[in-house]
Amino acid sequence: MAEKRDYYEVLGLSKGASEDELKQAFRKLSRKYHPDFNPGDKEAEEKFKEINEAYEVLSDPDKKARYDQFGHAGVDPSYGGGGFDGGFSGGFGDMGDISDIFSSFFGGGFGSSSGRSANAPRRGQDIQTNVNISFMEACFGKKADITINRMEKCPDCGGSGAEAGTSPETCPECHGTGQVKVTQRTPFGMISSQKACSRCGGKGKVINSPCHKCHGNGRVSVSKNITVDIPAGIDDEQTIRVSGQGHSGINGGPAGDLHVTVTVRPDAIFERDGYDVHTEMPITFVQAALGAEVTVPTIDGTVKYTIPEGTQPGTIFRFKNKGIKKLNRSERGNQFVHITIEVPSNLTKKQKDLLKEFDSSLDDSKNYKKRNSFFDKIKQAFEK
Fold it and tell me: CA 130 to CA 55: how far, in whole Å?
């Protein structure tokens, strides 16, 4: 088996990184190496998979704790040690005995095996991944094809872990209970307690002929293509949960879920604010002064709109129900068009003379009310 890189190293972080640091690193790297941005680049594709795997583990508090203590063997069943599912069966000197003593008095502690049975059904772990979409795809939704690596029931042994033609056998040590009784002399006297069977690891069964494909784990890593429905109105950094598409369960337990975090690429024309859309519309000085019919872009396409004469810079027009569809609802937001007036430059001498003539023909009191009001306020301020 190829040696895996340290998950913190994959994300460019130090051990003990905070949740926010993990998220920021994941988003930055997943964008950089996403297959959509690196078509045909196998190296980028492999790095993207490695980044997703690292974040999947480190973003889960339980997995992160196991990884910090035991490394890859604590979270990857195919890496050796079975991911440490089902507890421990000794192996730490007298810690197992001390654990049993405390368990008999206080009902647990020190990682004792008095909790759930290692042979009980357990839900599969969730998977976290990322998908990049355009602004328009976020507005109207789409079906996105993504590739994930997940643990599935071994097809050769059906999840039993035993080689085809054989089956797990009842453990001769604990007779299938997964627990053995031990009696110990302690400062409190002789104490009897239950502990996980060291022969079967608390499972109650032993596999004498492990499956060659899964090496007795009952699950194998599989690359899977999943089609995810991205709903209309999804926003940047929102997460979609796909039920039952995570890692398969253990001992007949249900599969985990797939969590897909959406990254929305910025648009050159539109800007989003909740479910409203904003766009800047430049018009000429003449169009603003005389009014004009202009073509305005919306997310549904272009529409004709009549700019009234005398339109001022900074005027905002509202297009009702031309915004983004609200998630799981029929209502839509609005579109707001922000008017900017572009002042002409590079004028010829003739054009400048015409403008001067035009300006001298205007009546300040009628045509420049804001300007007159402004200078009146200045005059009053300095006369005090």
Answer: 10
Residues 63-105: tens digit of each pLDDT? 888 888 778 777 775 554 444 444 333 333 334 444 444 444 4
> Rounded mean pLDDT of 115-140?
85
Give me 132's structure tokens: 């990049």
pLDDT at 103: 43
Q: Cα(43)–Cα(49) distance, rounded to whole angstroms? A: 10
* Distance of alpha carbon 347 from alpha carbon 364, whole angstroms: 24
Taking the CA atoms of 210, 215, 217 and 223 in sequence, report the sign of the dihedral they define: negative
Residue 374 CB contacts under 8 Å (≥ 6 apart), including other chains:
none
Tell me if residue 144 falls in helix, strand or coil.
strand
Distance CA 130, CA 118 (A): 33
Nearest CA among 251, 159, 164, 168 for reference residue 208:
168
Please give the structure tokens belonging to residue 268: 């050159």
Q: In the numeric block, which tokens belong to residue 288?
A: 């603003």
Yes or no: say if 297 and 279 are a contact pair by the CB < 8 Å rule. Answer: yes
Cβ contact 171:204 at 8 Å: yes
On the 0-12 / 13-18 / 19+ scale of CB atoms within 10 A, 299 is buried
Joined together, the tokens standing for residue 156 give 């050769």
Contacts of 186 (CB under 8 A, 6+ apart): 101
Mapped onto helix, strand or coil, the DSSP state of residue 309 is coil
Residue 223 token pair = 């690359």
Mean pLDDT of the chain: 83
φ and ψ at 255, to 5 degrees? -75, 155
